[in-house]
């Protein structure tokens, strides 16, 4: 099986070298670009499976280039992960709103980088998903469609299972109702945003029966976060 291509767009030599080394060790093929212009030229020669893109680049910023790229039909479905040192929620939301599939806040560990790259590639259908996703004593089995805490199986609906799968592959990040609906139900389906509140309440009730209702947290004025940390 051929290796998947990751286009790494980062202007700092040391960081770019580290990213490429980590990706190569994880089994991916990495292609380097130092800015948006260089990356655009690379797209003429290769068809990357994912772009790892620094937010702040000389000339055209990474987020602006991603916005332009997503407007082109040929690149609309090309997965993009933004690398950013920005910690403010509004900046993270902006990145997702322009079409980025995920973001990673610097500094990050190589393990987190590879996990997020693989998660985005799974969602885009580039690679098959893992049979099990485990966080602490919480285990989600994607083949058996089972969610369990320890040795106890939780009774959840198919929609709540997909919601938990998204939460467990994106821990410690805040998502608005609109973003959750897009990710779990899909952008082509029209559903009231408040529908997400109903499923969140049900999930909390089910998790609460096992003393874990705190896993799904409300972030006032924005949305929800799934986290094992209080």
Order of helices and strands: EHEHEHEHEHEEEEHEHHEE
Q: In total, how many beta strands?
A: 12
Q: What is the makeup of the main sheet?
A: 5 strands, parallel
Radius of gyration: 18 Å
Q: In CATH terms, what is the fold-level topology of the largest domain?
A: Rossmann fold
Biggest β-sheet: strands ordered side by side in the sheet: 2-1-3-4-5
Classify the beta-strand content into a percent band: 15-25%
Overall residue-averaged pLDDT value? 85
Query: Which spans of ≥5 residues are poorly predicted at pLDDT below 50?
Result: none
Describe this structure in words.
- Helices cover 38% and strands 22% of the residues.
- Helix 6 packs across helix 8 (195-208).
- It has two domains: 5-123, Response regulator (Rossmann fold, 3-Layer(aba) Sandwich); 132-226, Arc Repressor Mutant, subunit A (Orthogonal Bundle), CATH 1.10.10.
- The mean pLDDT is 85.
- It is built from eight helices and twelve strands.
- With 230 residues, the chain is α/β, with parallel strands linked by helices.
- It has helices spanning 13-25, 36-43, 62-71, 89-97, 110-123, 158-169, 177-184, 195-208, and strands at residues 5-9, 29-33, 50-54, 80-84, 102-105, 132-135, 138-141, 146-149, 152-154, 174-176, 216-219, 223-226.
- The strands form three sheets. The chain has a five-stranded parallel beta sheet, with helices on both faces.
């Amino acid at each position: 099986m051929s290796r998947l291509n990751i286009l790494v767009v980062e202007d700092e030599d040391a960081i770019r070298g580290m990213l490429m080394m980590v990706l190569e060790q994880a089994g991916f093929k990495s292609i380097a670009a130092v800015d948006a212009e260089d990356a655009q030229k690379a797209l003429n020669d290769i068809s990357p499976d994912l772009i790892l893109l620094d937010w702040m680049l000389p000339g055209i910023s990474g987020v602006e280039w991603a916005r332009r790229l997503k407007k082109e039909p040929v690149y609309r479905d090309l997965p993009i992960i933004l690398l950013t040192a920005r910690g403010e929620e509004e900046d993270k939301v902006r990145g997702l709103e322009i079409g980025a599939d995920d973001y990673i806040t610097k500094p990050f560990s190589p393990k987190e980088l590879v996990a997020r790259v693989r998660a985005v590639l799974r969602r885009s259908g580039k690679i098959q998903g893992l049979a099990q996703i485990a966080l602490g004593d919480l285990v989600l089995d994607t083949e058996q469609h089972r969610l369990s805490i320890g040795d106890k199986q939780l009774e959840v609906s198919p929609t709540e299972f997909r919601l938990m799968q998204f939460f467990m592959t994106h821990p410690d990040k805040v998502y608005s109702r609109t973003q959750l609906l897009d990710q779990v139900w899909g952008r082509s389906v029209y559903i009231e945003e408040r529908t997400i509140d109903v499923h969140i309440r049900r999930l909390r009730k089910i998790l609460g029966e096992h003393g874990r209702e705190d896993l799904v947290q409300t972030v006032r004025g924005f949305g929800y976060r799934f986290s094992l940390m209080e």
